[in-house]
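Last lecture ended with a question: if I hand you only a sequence, what can you say about the shape of the protein? Today we answer it with a concrete record. The protein is phosphatidylinositol-3,5-bisphosphate 3-phosphatase. Below, first the input exactly as provided, then the predicted structure, then a couple of comments.
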Amino acid sequence: MSAPPRSTSLSDSSSELEQLESTGSWDEALDWFKLEVQHPGSRSVLHHANYKFLLEAERVIVEGHGVVLINTDEAGTLIVTNFRLIFLSEETENIVALGTIPLATIEKFSKMVVKNQPAPHQSEKTPSQRLLQVIGRDMRIIVFGFRPKTQQRRDIYDGILRCTKPSRLWDLYAFSCGPSKFTNANPKVRLLNECFRLLGKGFCSASIDMIDKGSYTLSNELWRISNVNSNYIMCPSYPFALIVPKSISDEELVHASSFRSKGRLPVVSWCHPGTGAVLARSSQPLVGLMMNMRSNTDEKLVAALCSQPDGYKKGRRKLYIADARPRKNALANVAMGGGSESPSHYFQSEVVFFGIDNIHAMRESLFRLRDYLDTHGSTSSDGTLSLLRHGGWTWGGGNLSSMSASVATLGDSGWLIHVQSVLAGSAWIAARVALESASVLVHCSDGWDRTSQLISLANLLLDPYYRTCTGFQALIEKDWLAFGHPFEERMGMPTVSGSSDTSLDLSRQSSVGSFPSSPMRQSSGSSAPQAPSSSHAQNQYSPIFLQWIDCVSQLLRMYPFAFEFSSAFLVDLLDSVLSCRFGNFFCNSEKERQLAGVSESCGCLWAYLAGLRSSEGRSHVHYNLFYSPLKHNGPLLPPAAALAPTLWPQFHLRWACPSEAQAGELEAQCRNMSLKFSELQKAKEGAEKKAEETTNAMESLSAELQNEKRLSSHAMTLAKRANKECAAIKRAIQSLGCKVHFAVVADDVVSDNPLGGVCDAICPLRSRDGGCRWPEAGCAQSCSQFIGVKANYDAIDSLSIYETYFDSREGK
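The predicted structure:
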C-alpha cells in the first residue's frame, strides 16, 4: 500500500478521505512516520535528562515514543511530568501547544479502543485503534493514538492517573515547586490596603503587625472596618476584615449573621466616594418554610446600607435587593429554609430577580459549547476537517439545512445567553448606583457564585481603578478570593483534608465502535457514554470564574480604550488559574488557605504576571495598546443593545480554530508598529542628546577660544607696553652718553627675550668668544626685568655731567 499524505488538506479529494476512513488502517498510518523506538543516546531529545523545557521541580514520570496527535496527524513523544502532559513533535523536536496541557487543567481522560472496518477486498483483520482521549477545562479535546501491541498507552494512562488525582492538596506541583522567585506577599495585607482605599484612607499602609494587633479598625463618616471575623468564627467563608455600616455594632453583626445562609451577612463591597452609595453582598435570608421568619437586626443592617453623608439633599436613598436567581429557584429554596426578602420588611426597598441559572446549568452549557467547537473546528479530535466530514463541503455535511442545524447548535449550548444575563445584571446594578445614587444588595443562594460574578463586574463598571492591572488584581482578591468563592470545588482540586467532593472523571471503560462513526464525537459532558453519570449534588465543578473572565473580555471588546490590560492577559490569567501552578486560588476560603500555609509554601500568580509585564515594559502583550485612562475616567454604563456577546476568539477558538482565533492579529501589528515607533523615539532622543552634548562641547570650546583670545590680546598689550618701556630706557641710557643698540621688535610679535640683542652689544662681562659669563659675573639682569639691558650702575653713578659732556683733557 502506498503511503498516503501526512495530513489532510482542503485539496484532498473526498474519495481519498473516504478510502482512508473505510480502511481504517491506523496501524499502517503510524508506519508513515517510521516511528521506531530509538536508542537513548541517538538523540538528546529522547532522554529526559536533557529536556531543557522542564520547569523548576518538574520531573518526568513516564514518556512514550511513536505517539500520534490525532487532531493534527502529528507524530512525536508524549511525556507525563508531575505538572503537565507534554507532546514533542518528532519532526521539529519542539513542544506542540495543542498536545501540551497542565494536569490540573484536565477535566477527564479515558482509554478508547476503536475497531477498524476492513477494506472491501481485504480479508485479514486490521488491528484496532488504541486511543487516549483527554478533555481539558480550557475548551480543548485532544486524542492520542498509540502503536498496537505496546504498553505505552497503559503507562501513559497510569502516569496521568497518579498525577491528576493526588490524595492531598500538598501533593500538587505548586507545593513541590515552592514560592521560588514568585514570592507571595501576605494577601491579607493587600486586602486591608484595598479596604483603606475604599474608605478614603489610602494614605494608610497595612502591615502584618497591624493585623496581628487588630489595629486596622479605621472608619469614615458612614462606614468602618470591623475585626469581628478576625478568627473566622462568625463566618468561615468571609474575610478577616469587613466593611460595615458605622452605626452597627459587632454584637449586632454576629446576631444578623444567624439569619443568613452560611452566616454570610450583608457587608459592603464598594462605596461611591461622592454620594456614599454602596454595593453590598450577602447570601439568601433564612425566611423559613412559611416565609414568615424575620430578623430585626438583619433589617436594621440592611437599612443602614442606605446611610447618607451630611449635606446629602436628594432625599432618602433607595435600596435595591438584586436576587441573581430565577424567581422559581428562590421559591424552591424555601423548602430548605432559604428564600428571598420581602419588600414590606425592608423599608424603601425593591427586590429584583435576574434569572441567572445555577452552577449545574453553566457546567452543562460549557460542555455543549466545547463539543460544538470540537465538532466544527479545524483541529477536531477525530483528525477530520469539519468541511470534509461525511464527504461534504459544508458544516455537518451536504445541504443548507444541516448548516443551519450546526449554527443552531451554538445557540443550543446556551453559553452566550448566560454570559449576556450576567452582563445585563451587572450593567443594571452599576446604573442604579451611578444614575440614581441608590445602594444595591446582591445575593444568590450562598452568595459566592453568581453574587461574585455580578458584584465584581459592577465594581469593574463603576470604578476605573479596577480596570488597571493593579486594580484588577485587587478586585479578584477581594470579591473572589477573600469572600470565599469555592475554587477548590468549582475546579475539582483536592481538599486540605485529603478528600474531594468533586472527583475527576476517570473512566476505565473502553468504548468500542468504528472510526467512521467518530467515537471522539461523543459528548464530553456528563452524558458521555464512557463517563459514569454523577448527580448534580455530587459534582460541584462549574466554570463560574471562567464565565466571569469571559464577561470581562466582552467588556474589553466593547470598550477597548477603558482597560489597561489586554485580552492576552486574561487568557494567561485563566490558564494559570486552571493549571494550579500557583497557590493563590487553592482551597475554598481565606481561612482554609491560611490553615494550609498556601501563601508561604507556593508561588504567587500575581508576582509571575507582574514579572512578565516588567520584562518588556509597556510594550508587553499583557498591556492594552489602546488604553486611554482619560477617555473613560468614570463609570461604564453599556446600554442593553450593546450587551450582545460573541465567542471569545483568543480563548474559545484557539484550539479548535487556531487560524481564526487570531482576532488580535491587528492589535499585534499595531503593537509592532508601536514598538518600532518607540524604538525610533528612543533613537531620536539619543540623537537629540548627542546633538545637545555636541552643542555644549562647541560652546565650551568657543568659550575657551574666547578666553585664549583675551589672553593673547593681554599678552600683546604687555608686549607693546614693554616696547614702550624699552624705548624709554633706551632714551634714558643714551642721555647718559652710552651707546645702546636695541633690536626692533614688531608690535604684533611677542618675543621671549625682546632685549636679548642689548646683551650682545653692550655687556662688558662677555667672554672673548662671545659667551655670557652670568651668573658668575654681575649683570644688570639681576636688577631689572629687562633681560637684555646690562650696565655698570656703579660706573654710571660715578659719572658726572662734566665727564659726560666735557673732556677733562680738553679742559687742561
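Comments.
1. Residues 88 and 95 are 5 Å apart (CA to CA).
2. The chain has a mean pLDDT of 79.
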